[in-house]
Design brief:
Blueprint (H helix, E strand, L loop, with lengths): L10 E4 L5 E3 L13 H17 L4 E5 L6 H13 L4 E6 L2 H7 L7 E5 L12 E5 L10 H11 L13 E7 L5 E8 L2 E9 L16 H4 L7 H15 L8 H12 L9 H4 L3 E5 H4 L4
Parallel strand pairs: 3-4, 3-6, 4-5, 6-7
Antiparallel strand pairs: 1-2, 7-8, 8-9, 9-10
């Protein structure tokens, strides 16, 4: 189930290439190392797809007023896929001009928006803190447009195709929630946090992506999930004596008895848990 559909924001002026630029200018706030949790998850989960691709192109969509996140994405992806390339895409031309001095082998910057102005079909589109400033009713149409730009699945090789990772984090990247989507649509939701900063799992609610943040109310699946997460966290309190990581692992292990958790202890140790999208998708 996807959120309510709506038309995309009106195109802005044509880009330098002549194609209409789709979207609106965001605040552009960014900080170095802000997206480290998302990047590491992408490298771990999607690295195999990037390695076997003939041209593993990743897009940092809406990187903001400074190019740090695109520079860091290239570094982290290349730990898993040495041939990966990153294209930073921004809708504000001045931000693109400011980023150009940082271009190097494997890293380029382009003016554009949700039309994703790169040749071919990228293996990855990362859109962090972009849809936060849009209306919930616009999310489904943006997702469809971006998923249509992803590299398609190839059953002959076992490839699931490209990946869209869309989510929100706090200003210094301690708390982050994102949705992963393939060419077919949404797949999973991941909650990631610096465990030492966490009072309870529901603290992550304020970082839910736009598709879910207004659905954290009684009667909605994401509200029930966070309620159960807090209860499992409370029940795991004795494990706090061994550290926040052990308490988190025990919490997620108990949570997985009732919710479709898709990952295992190797990711839980990082302060993460990933759940199937269908279990948290909005009702109605």
């Amino acid at each position: 189930m996807t959120p309510r559909t709506a038309s995309l924001p009106h195109p802005r002026l044509p880009s330098s290439g002549g194609s209409p630029v789709v979207g609106t200018v965001t605040r552009g706030t960014t900080n170095p190392n802000r997206l480290r949790r998302m990047d590491r998850w992408i490298a771990a989960v999607h690295g195999a797809e990037l390695r076997r691709a003939a041209d593993p192109v990743a897009v940092d969509l809406g990187y903001g007023a400074a190019p740090w996140t695109a520079v860091e994405l290239l570094h982290r992806l290349r730990t898993a896929a040495p041939r990966a390339r990153v294209v930073g895409v921004e809708i504000e031309p001045a931000r693109v001009a400011a980023a150009r001095p940082y271009e190097r082998d494997g890293l380029a910057f382009r003016h554009g928006g949700f039309e994703v102005p790169v040749s071919g079909r990228p293996l990855l589109v990362r859109a962090a803190n972009v849809l936060r400033q849009y209306d919930e009713t616009e999310v489904a149409a943006v997702w469809r447009r971006l998923c249509a730009r992803l590299a398609p699945a190839d059953p002959a090789t076992g490839s699931r195709g490209g990946l869209l990772v869309e989510g929100t984090c706090d200003e210094i990247g301690r708390r982050h929630v994102w949705v992963a989507l393939g060419p077919e649509g949404p797949r999973t939701v991941t909650f990631a946090t610096r465990l030492g900063s966490l009072q309870r799992p529901s603290d992550l609610a304020e970082r839910l992506p736009k598709a879910l943040i207004h659905r954290n109310v009684p009667g909605e699946p994401v509200h029930a999930f966070l309620r159960d997460f807090d209860r499992a966290w409370a029940a795991a309190a004795p494990y706090a004596a061994y550290g926040a990581r052990q308490r988190w692992i025990r919490t997620v292990r108990d949570l997985a008895a009732h919710w479709p958790v898709t990952d295992g202890p190797a990711r839980w140790r990082q302060g993460e848990v990933t759940v199937r999208w269908e279990a948290l998708a909005p009702r109605g």
